[in-house]
Amino acid sequence: ADATNSTKLIYIQHNEILANKINETYLSIPTRLNIRLFDCYTFMSKILNDYLAYGFESLDNCWDTESGPTVIVNCKDITKRIFADEFHLTSTLQSLIAKQVYLVLGGSSLSSMSTRLTSMTEYVSFSVVFAILMLK
């Protein structure tokens, strides 16, 4: 428990330092560069703490891949789970994250994003991996 709390604190402090450094560096100079941050850690924590409100039925993995070469399916509907296996997010959660990133970083409506969502989900899932490892 102490190791988990220490890791969470490190992620939170890292995000705060990153935001401060970006503000110091880019807000103080004239530039056309537009940098916006999305706090995936906080968003994921919110989902994990209240997963039922987001339509998920359990925090358990849908697939058990730690039992050797055989995958054991532990759920009937993977769309109701956050984790596909011990390390990977389900496409349902990836879509939620992509929608939130789009809205937070300047999207005007969800209907205008449908064609861009697939590539955005691939981009976002890479950045989420580190937050997931420490939250689990």
Order of strands, widest sheet:
1-2
- Beta-strand residue fraction: under 5%
User: Order of helices and strands, N to C?
Assistant: HHEEHH
How many helices?
Answer: 4
Total domains, how many? Answer: 2
Cα radius of gyration in angstroms: 17 Å
Uncertain parts:
112-136
How would the global form be characterised?
A: elongated
Number of DSSP-assigned strands? 2
Overall helicity: 40-55%
SS-based structural class? mainly alpha
The pLDDT mean sits at: 78
- Major sheet summary line: 2 strands, antiparallel
Instruction: State the separation between the terminal residues, measured CA to CA.
Output: 11 Å
What's the SSE blueprint?
Blueprint: H1 2-26, H2 40-49, E1 63-64, E2 72-73, H3 91-104, H4 117-135
Antiparallel strand pairs: 1-2
Helix pairs in contact: 2-4, 3-4
Structure, briefly:
With 136 residues, this protein is mainly α. It has helices spanning 2-26, 40-49, 91-104, 117-135; strands spanning 63-64, 72-73. The termini are close together.
Characterise this structure.
With 136 residues, the protein is mostly helical. It has 2 domains: 1-37, no CATH class; 39-135, no CATH class. It is built from 4 helices and 2 strands. The chain has a two-stranded antiparallel sheet. A hairpin with a 7-residue loop joins strand 1 (63-64) and strand 2 (72-73). Helix 3 packs across helix 4. The N and C termini lie close together (11 Å). Residues 112-136 have low confidence and may be disordered.
